[in-house]
Design a protein that fits this description.
There is one protein chain. The chain is an alpha+beta fold and about 90 residues long. The protein has 2 helices and 5 strands; from the N terminus they run E-E-H-E-E-E-H. The longest helix is centred in the middle third of the chain and has 11 residues.
Amino acid sequence: MPDASPRTSYSLQFEDDGVGLAKRMEFEAASASVALEIAERECDGRWALLACDGQPVCRVGHNGGTWTIAPALPPTCREETQSLIKSR
């Protein structure tokens, strides 16, 4: 039996946005595409920050069958947000 494919730690971080409460969801996935499939189920009508091994990857939003993937952060906000992520 072949070895299971290596898994990487991912997280989705949601803000209190009027659609839902702030929450952080951590999970493991075999690839970024699998992580995005999980995000699709969790992000209905909301935006979340997708991180891989604690490093921001992108912001994802899913609403009514339409996906939006945006840069994780503007460069000027990157350090501040990374320290926020680490403090949680």
